[in-house]
Automatic annotation (TrEMBL):
Pfam families: GGDEF. This is diguanylate cyclase. Residues 415-545 form the GGDEF domain. The chain crosses the membrane at residues 15-34, 181-201. It is an enzyme of class 2 (transferase). It catalyses: 2 GTP = 3',3'-c-di-GMP + 2 diphosphate. The lineage of its organism: Bacteria, Pseudomonadati, Pseudomonadota, Gammaproteobacteria, Methylococcales. InterPro entries: Diguanylate_Cyclase, GGDEF_dom, Nucleotide_cyclase, Rev_trsase/Diguanyl_cyclase. PROSITE patterns: GGDEF. Its EC number is 2.7.7.65.
Amino acid sequence: MTNDKMQSVLAEPRFRLLILFAVLLFIGLSLLIFKAFSSYQHTQEKTTQLQQHADAILYFDEVLTMSARMAAFTGKQYWEVRYHACVPKLDLALQNTLALFPDAQEALEATREANLNLIDLELQALRLASKGQLRQASEILFSPDYEKDKKIYSAGLTRLQEHITAYKNTIQNQIRRSTQLSLGVAALMFLFIVLVLVYILRLLDSRLKLEAMTSNLSRHFIQHSQENIESNIQWALQLLACQSRANHCYLLNCAPQNNTRCPIEWRFPAESPSLLSAIPALAEKCQAWLQSQRDHNGIWYWPDRKTSAENQTMQKTILKTLHSKTLLGASTARADGDKFMLVLASGRRNLKLGKADSDLLHTIIEIIMRAIENKNKENDLLRLATTDALTGIANRRHFSDQLRNELMRVQRTRQASALMMLDIDFFKHVNDSYGHTAGDAVLSHVALYAQTRLRQIDIIGRIGGEEFCVIVPNRDAENALIAAERLRLGIENEVIATDAGSIRITVSIGVTLLKSDDQLESAMKRVDAALYIAKNNGRNRIQLV
Ligand SMILES: Nc1nc2c(ncn2[C@@H]2O[C@H](COP(=O)(O)OP(=O)(O)OP(=O)(O)O)[C@@H](O)[C@H]2O)c(=O)[nH]1
């Protein structure tokens, strides 16, 4: 993805919001993990320290007993000193244990009396030992009273150990549970972040695909739209329908009647019969709504719960008619008064295209509209280049092209075809008597009359001032003469109403059959000769050469 595209995509508020959301989630997740980790660390340290202090109590207790007894046995001062040195250490271990585990108080309280007795007896023994009375000192330390208090005190310490172990287990279980919970939440948040990122990537992907499709459409229309605009529009709608997961895609022209030179509508799929019948129904039911949309260059999404109850009912009916659940429309008004609406209809509740893609939808309409405009301009130019400005029939050049084509067809198929040349008799007199404007009206009238009386496949052109030529395909001489006579007679009987008054005219017609070895010039020369004979023979007649 190029930087430009990334920036243009990230410029959209929905993407920015999603990314902000993902970043906030990520920060939250990091904090949660950090908190869970540090609380685990702290509790681990606390329980380890507690265990160390508890072990220290046991150790120093043993050391005190052992030091007192060794002093009684050996009488050495070293053991007495050692005893006194251990006393504050035991006290400190007890205080530390109580600080970390206040519940230890209860267990220690139960051993208090026994402990005081023990200390008292041990101090007595130490005093005797220091005086050299070792036997008496040993007796005190091995006396039943000492053993009894020692047992009580040891049992208390064992209970304390058990309490601590239970406390440690409880607290570790708690911390394990809360760590598991934190990790679970973290995993969920992580999953959510991944989902958000996947969603963003999918949106980005679909946006990029849409942009690629739009530029592809644009390129295609620039290169090929003039060749077959109808099928190109059909193709564009199909592409759009596939891209947006719509079942149907319409391009409607909802401009006021007679204000457009563009086809009324295209639709995809074109052959859907239900749609063909639904379109007029849509137009009929939406009239009022379409009117209200006429000045609105926007995008709309049905069902729209924010609109009036009346509109909602209308939307429901139309959605039902179109067998759709969702309708997305984008309208664009043209300066020339045309109003185009691109409508996507889907049987699903969601279209892949959303309101955020409105710019692309408008671009697509714009591309199609430009193509239609260009096609119209091209048609105008083509009309100007091929038709006679006064009568609207083929001009001399276009007629000559058509005649060349017909000659090639005759050469290929060997079918009979005729050529007529028709000239108004004494037209100069018409001009002189009624004026040039009336003369123009007569020329237009003759062209229109001939055009309406001839067959669809016959081609008429104005090749000179008051001269017309007609290609009459698939006619032999007899039938060509019948057609020419019908024309001559019809014009003779016509009363042409002009501003200068009613005018009656006659025409002379030369007729010739096209030959397989004819060139344009030879065919024109022959038909001209036929007309010349008709004129020379008194006019208002037909002549075959
Ligand atoms: N009003 C009008 N007159 C035209 C136009 N083009 C040619 N003419 C006139 O058509 C007349 C042709 O006259 P001519 O060639 O003498 O032929 P004609 O009077 O029809 O006599 P015949 O053809 O011999 O019967 C001329 O007066 C031209 O000025 C046109 O576009 N409009």
